[in-house]
Amino acid sequence: MADSTQLYVLGGLAAAPILASAAWSTLRKRLIATETGFYDCDYLAQPRSDKAKIPGTVVICGGSVGGLLTARVCHDHFERVIIVEAESWLDTDDARKVQSWTQENTRSRIMQYTSIQGGQAFLYKSMCALYPNFDEECKASDIGVAPANLRPNFFGHVMKVPYSHNGGDLPKMFFASRQALETLTRRLTLTREYPNIQQIIGTVTGYTANDKHPDRLGKVSLRTREGATIDLDATFVIDCTGPTQAGAKWIQRAGFNGDDFNALRSSFDQKMHYVTFQFYISPELGAKLPIPGGFENIGGTIVVCYPDTSRDHRYLAAVKAEGRSIQLCCGSWGVDDLPRTLEGVKEHARSINVEKQSTKWFFDLIDMLAEAEDTIKVFPVKVGPSYWTHYEKAKNLPSNWIAIGDSISRINPLYGQGVSKAMLGALSLNTILHQNRTKAELPRNLVKQFFESHAAKLAPLWQGTKYADYAQSTTIPSEGESLDDGKFLRWYTKQIQVLSSKDEYAGAVLWRSLSMLDGASIDLLHPRLVFRVFWQALTGY
Description:
Blueprint: H1 2-35, E1 54-61, H2 65-75, E2 78-85, H3 121-130, H4 134-140, E3 144-147, E4 152-154, E5 157-158, E6 172-175, H5 178-189, E7 197-209, E8 217-224, E9 229-233, E10 236-239, H6 246-253, E11 265-268, E12 272-280, H7 283-288, E13 301-306, E14 314-321, E15 325-333, H8 342-350, H9 360-368, E16 377-382, E17 386-389, E18 401-403, E19 409-410, H10 418-435, H11 446-469, H12 487-499, H13 504-515, H14 527-539
Helix pairs in contact: 2-5, 2-10, 10-11, 12-14
């Protein structure tokens, strides 16, 4: 009997690691499905049969990147899609130019239209799924597509690129300015390939409830550029008006006023400023620039210098953009002490606190950009507060209305996740519609499902960027919160950042998080990583 008991104990001990590993793997897959859009990409570009398409019109209020991506998703599920866009020039050839850097117009409602733009491998994966010719069109527009080496530099610690954790290579991503990305997305969406999508130039002025179904919206009112007022019948309404969050006001005026959206809104002010410097790089100058791999061969990111937020309030990044240009971005939390000249850029770069100097070549690069100083363009931006309106907690929303992108939430754009955030909203909507693709009607509880699903994907972005911004003493925290919130997480993340310069596993965890692919929140808590973090903290190694 004793021998039998011992065998059971030994068997249990032997099986424990296997069972623990299986449980970890199962939990991780669930979190990836909940927190990211990784698996949702598989459901993109699977159009319904004509018989199963939902009758009527989807009206999308706002035609920026979020509105365009949402229109492309809706094309696969609805009979008709209308984008209402206020800026008249977006109906011209200039808005779809292959060479976006030659545009004669600029967006008046997008503060960062001419600024540096971040991206992730997740966004590339999603765009390729939505638009089969995406790679081809990127090449035509001089948008770089290359392995997703983000080249992060954590206050002097250069992250090891996790090639061995990705089969010897990295998934691809694209590198484009906001101007190039929006122009390309518009050209890809408003095409004969998607005949159900139409763009109307006009300004939305309000919604009207449905006469027969008081739980729904029935019409969207707009004023055309000629000054006429028209009403569009709407089966489904999507607010893509961005930071104005105009849709929230319009649904209340339409009679859906049971919710206090101010009470549902979380916000904090990170007091962020940044300025983008753009240089044209001639072939002669490009051949001399000391960029690792060379200017002509680099995919996009040159370097991203993240500050030690306990000691510094400045940020610096450089990317190769379309049209043979380099964009340098100088950022600052708290005070606008940012440069406006190349000499100021040099001072900004050299004054950033680092634990060790690892980018001497970058200072040489800035010096050499003096040869292109006559081409310099400067684009300053003052970032508004971050916010999140928790529509998933609302009780009286129309049953055929949702919001996407900055119409729900805005986070600090310096983390480069804004467009991916809008894509997560489009993916959440598409997955729900795909799961109900055999029925030619709006899914029951669509609005509730969408906001709950999307909130789960927004939460990691919101929490991560918020706690990073809370490291700055000038940040004004959300009501009822303190800048000490997230303090341990910041310490722990800093340890991983330092560790990533000498440990590829730590680099792989950070890379997955930065790339927004198949990373889960529990990856930071894997016992292997936790042990290495605390060992480093105790021993310095």
